[in-house]
Every structure is written in structure tokens, then in C-alpha cells.
Amino acid sequence: MKKRVGILLSGRGSNMMSLVEASRDPAAPYDVALIASDKPDAAGIGWAQAQGLATWALSPKGIGKPAYEAGLDTALRDAGVETIALAGYMRLLSDDFVSRWRGRILNIHPSLLPKYKGLDTHARAIAAGDLHGGCSVHLVTEELDGGTVLGQAEVPILPGDTPDTFAARVLEQEHRLYPRTLAEFVSR
Ligand code: GRF
User: Fold this and answer.
1) d(CA 72, CA 74)
2) How do residues 125-145 score in pLDDT, each as one tens digit?
3) Strand locations in 30-176, DSSP E?
């Protein structure tokens, strides 16, 4: 039986697309059961709808975080989701939500954790004079970008790199690392 994965995103969703594409391999150990967002107009939601995938989107604005997360939790459970993959989800999940899905939420972060938690990771790595940056897939806990690291890919920082040129090369590696790490995670 394939494991059922739910993907949460807020933006363009390129990592979501790479997870969906990998799931179409008959040998993939997971199916994408739901793509959910806090932004009904996110580009990633439009793409998923055009692909005929199941989507759920609701803005927390006006209803508050508890009601929003209750709706999200119900949508994920109704879709039979067992593992959640955050892919450019720009909102902090509450401690309560994290504890209800403990050990079953993954995230991709554009740095070699534990270095550069939070935002502006590429600019910070360049400013520090690092020779390498990269990306990490990790378990989500109550601590921001703090859970166990499940997989990493290293990317060299080249002379003349700007945060944008470096981010583009890191993103290519994110698209390889996330499907592979998620597949290993749901198979273990
Ligand atoms: C990626 O850089 C990812 O590492 C970070 O947010 C960005 C999402 O990009 N968590 P996309 O929406 O998957 O294209």
C-alpha cells in the first residue's frame, strides 16, 4: 500500500511539483492525497487544480489560526493523509497542530541545518564567506527549523554568486533531495 502524503504550500510550489512528479512513478512509495494552502490564490494551488489533484485552501485572515488549523486538520484526515510535507509553507504551525501530527511532518529548508534557521539563508551564507550552502529536509517540531535532519544536499557557493543565483542552484538540489528523502521516510 502506498503511503498518503499531504503537501502544504503558500507560494509557487516548485517543490510540491517535484514531489507530485516523483509520485507518478509506479514504484514510488507514496501518493499525493491532498495539496493544501493558507493562500487560496497561491500559484501552486492553481497548478494542482489544473492537474486534477485534490486541493484545499483557506485563508486564516478573519477566522483566526485555531479555526483555520482545525479546518486544515479535518481536510488532511478526510483525505487519509498519513505524512505531511511542508513545501514553501510560510506560516508557523501551532504547537497543538505539531503535537497532533508529531513525527509525521517534514519540511525542506534552504540551508545546511543547523546553520541559518529562518529567512534569508542564501544571503547569510554568502555574507559569512561560506564555501558551501545547501538544503535540508527535517522533521518539524515546535522549534523553528529545529527537528531531526533526515537528508541534506551540499551546493558550492561560487565567486560572484548573488543570493538569487545561489538560490536557483540550491532549488535544483531541493527538487532532487525532497522526493528521495520523503520516499525513504515513508518506506521505513
Ligand atoms: C524553497 O526555497 C524551500 O526551501 C523553502 O521555501 C521555498 C519554496 O519554494 N522552504 P517552492 O514554493 O517549493 O518553489
Assistant:
1) 5
2) 999 999 999 999 999 999 999
3) 30-37, 55-57, 83-86, 105-109, 132-139, 149-156
Question: How many domains, in total, are found in the chain?
Answer: 1
Domain range for 119 is 3-187
99-118: per-residue pLDDT in tens?
999 999 999 999 999 999 99
Place of cell 486544515: 72
Is the pTM above the cut of 0.90? yes
Question: What separation in Å is there between the alpha carbon of 90 and the centre of ligand 1?
Answer: 9
Q: Which atom of ligand 1 is nearest to the CA of 110?
A: 4
* CATH code for the domain in which residue 103 is found: 3.40.50.170
Ligand 1 pocket: which of 111, 112, 121, 171 to mutate (most atoms within 8 A of CB): 171
pLDDT in tens, 21-62: 999 999 999 999 999 999 999 999 999 999 999 999 999 999
- Grid cell, residue 91, equals 506560516
